[in-house]
Amino acid sequence: MCRWAAYRGEPIYLEELVTSPAHSLIEQSHCATRAKTATNADGFGIAWYGDRPEPGRFRDVLPAWSDCNLKSLARQIKSPLFLAHVRAATHGSTRRDNCHPFVNGTWSFMHNGQIDHFDRLRRSMESMLDDEHFNARAGSTDSELLFLLALQFGLRERPIAAMAEAIGFVEQISRHLTGTARVRFTAAFTDGQTLYGVRYATDEHAPTLYAAPMGGKGGYCLVSEPLNDETDWVEIPAGSAVILNANGLDAAGFDPAWEPERETAELREPAMAH
Amino acid sequence: MCRWAAYRGEPIYLEELVTSPAHSLIEQSHCATRAKTATNADGFGIAWYGDRPEPGRFRDVLPAWSDCNLKSLARQIKSPLFLAHVRAATHGSTRRDNCHPFVNGTWSFMHNGQIDHFDRLRRSMESMLDDEHFNARAGSTDSELLFLLALQFGLRERPIAAMAEAIGFVEQISRHLTGTARVRFTAAFTDGQTLYGVRYATDEHAPTLYAAPMGGKGGYCLVSEPLNDETDWVEIPAGSAVILNANGLDAAGFDPAWEPERETAELREPAMAH
Amino acid sequence: MCRWAAYRGEPIYLEELVTSPAHSLIEQSHCATRAKTATNADGFGIAWYGDRPEPGRFRDVLPAWSDCNLKSLARQIKSPLFLAHVRAATHGSTRRDNCHPFVNGTWSFMHNGQIDHFDRLRRSMESMLDDEHFNARAGSTDSELLFLLALQFGLRERPIAAMAEAIGFVEQISRHLTGTARVRFTAAFTDGQTLYGVRYATDEHAPTLYAAPMGGKGGYCLVSEPLNDETDWVEIPAGSAVILNANGLDAAGFDPAWEPERETAELREPAMAH
Amino acid sequence: MCRWAAYRGEPIYLEELVTSPAHSLIEQSHCATRAKTATNADGFGIAWYGDRPEPGRFRDVLPAWSDCNLKSLARQIKSPLFLAHVRAATHGSTRRDNCHPFVNGTWSFMHNGQIDHFDRLRRSMESMLDDEHFNARAGSTDSELLFLLALQFGLRERPIAAMAEAIGFVEQISRHLTGTARVRFTAAFTDGQTLYGVRYATDEHAPTLYAAPMGGKGGYCLVSEPLNDETDWVEIPAGSAVILNANGLDAAGFDPAWEPERETAELREPAMAH
Predict the structure, then answer these.
(1) What Pfam families does the record tag this protein with (chains A, B, C, D) (predicted)?
(2) Whose C-alpha in A68, B230, D132, D143 is 20 to 30 A from the C-alpha of A195?
(3) Domain total for chain D?
């Protein structure tokens, strides 16, 4: 399990999420309170949008609490849209390529959760990627592969639906290959304009997700656990997606059960009825 | 606060302390139970003696639990005498030069504890070193400086007495410079033949130290906290030194109050009585 | 291109190849003389055999010349059989998982050379691996994948033939997928008993390979370039394999053209002629 | 010897010095042409000014050519004033604390060159620092200590003069302690407003320094060697200081022989003449 925080709104310094709050992300790197593991010391990463369509990114393998570079960058960089993450490794060794956020073109993605039996699913998941997405794989985590799978399934055009498809596909092949399936998934992803958050689990234990206004003028912050006690953090219910853009915050249901095969089947049904 | 384990006896694989026990040193790097901090993730190190009089050393800055090199080395290397340490930084940044054990010629040293107000004492401590010991300083920790001070004061000839002098000196200058003094010190050090352990604090809270037979034929293990529940670990009382050599385990009092100035004063007293 | 050195014979300190010679491996990490690139600063690694059937391994990403751990380990560890490597990256980022030697069970492998158009061949190469070998892939280099392919093709039973098959297979799919093929390959690999060296290239430019007696009593050293001027280094011709075991040095031709399909076809031909 | 580049002018992306030019700083990290060493692979660093008076800083120990973070940051960050450096270690191990630029409050500093016999001068140099500057020392390089010495001698109020004093002092104590003196020093430093460059050596071999307009509107770039062949790079003569501010480029002589003692002596002379 990992901890993360994301922001969209008027430009603010990254430190307002990463280092300054009482229960900042760096604080959570050694004492998270609502995670399965209190210590999230297997690296960290930030992705932020500036003048270019692609985000800048900085990732490293030291615990976030002891990295001077992270502190200096968080203090210096202002951004209207950024993701920040501290990692507790489940799948994949401690190395930069395995640290979130993952970036592909203008898109970035970070995740808290895990795919059960990933070792037995990995190969089939990779086989769904076309050459371009396959070659874009740099690390060995389940998270990066979920992101690539969602990109493959159309994340760029219909973000929430493609992400639901990716998770639904993983659950499906897990049932085929292992007789069971469990995905726990709380993630943030963005194209540099709109920030999406999702909270979902196959079972009853979806990792937590909270939202709160921040930075004024309709700005919002999404976090895996609250950054302080003062703010009014709203818990996002499991099975939800959150969409943050210039119009403020919007919410929607998130249901991986909506599968392309099923849809096709339904579409065909009338034809079959003939 | 840090965690450590030391061994002297028949050659055993380093993994018998570092990775194999239920509560191994790597286990303690993320869930120490008798330390002020449960997480000891600011690097680690090992020093072991083989065919040469000088020890080999391997130190790195990742948490011990995620370092593949450490696991492989601990599994491959056998030694009759070695020190192993996982660090929770108090003074000094996370970098290799600040990881224990510290090595000087045939001597190696590691430490759990701290010197209060070290920032105000450091310069006076360094000023006691001759050029050779001054130039041997590679990092910025209080621990390394204590080791160099003890070397300066004669560690090579009278190990326990010189270490007591070094600590007594630090307490003394601390009282002069800050009006108070507190050193907490549980350490292991060796010349490659005899293994010394010390447990001491200026106040009532000396960091814990335990000993138990290990490896057969008079071998012993010293640890900052027990490696398992089965073994009969003996707690070494505060204010003690332990000496492990071919004759087995010996114990002695450890009292930094024995100061060279005082001794000189006492020697002079009769003269003054004239 | 990379630089490497391997040894089999009476136990010697690793430093006799890694740090001591005038043109030691560490020296070659910044001034190799017979390589395409003089600088080999993208990490390094050693694998050595001791009391266990599996080798110990130590790899890291700093330039070999500045790593204190490497110097200390090379000075302390004695071994009758070891591989040592300094890397200049062609495929795969600078991270430990991409540093040679690669280890699988009791086998270890290191390589200097490259596969042209690897990005277009990688997927088909991976598809030949069974689940066990596929899951054993930790990095992203062409070298590690060649090793896994050779293991898949029977390296454990017939080392030279399986390696030839692996290279022949890569050349074959390269011709299919890119219309051309070029593999340059100078490698050392061992099961902990016998040390194998191979020098081969699809074209006329096989990376260099030299051998010389070392360490007395039939010991030998294999290197990508000589470690000094005094020793009588024998250049191993392209298209050769070298086998070093208790009986000394043996040599054989190395021809990837020997393919299983072809052999089967040839064997069947007479039968078909009936 | 190291390589560096500094910029002051309209905000530009850091990549315009660090990665984009034909002979960019990253290119120079493996093939510098006018340095004593072609390889500058012992770490790198950048310091840049944004909205705050203090600079942001990013330093790491990998060769600049293989660090993905550096590439991403250089591509994303725009600044009107920044320093960038690639290191070839002379004094001090490869670690972040020893990488340039060094930062103290709003000031930053980077250096190419070295102090001969630094090991014998270091202690006397450190003894000149007051407690605040002494405690600010994080690494072990001659460069950082020169910077702290200049700060101690008044860099904040009279930058060029204090730097000359610092170098003059080092030459002086070197003559006292070793009977000879040689400082080679090409450096850039700034308070976030004005950019200073200095080229100096005790002997005839001052490391090179070049300047050229860049970024339009009176912007300038200072470099240890030209970044490309097209631009008209002006070589700054040895014994010079360059001052870049809103008024453009100004130059002055740089003479460490101007010593406070001497000045005092001169000031006293008339008095003594009475």
Answers:
(1) GATase_4
(2) A68
(3) 1
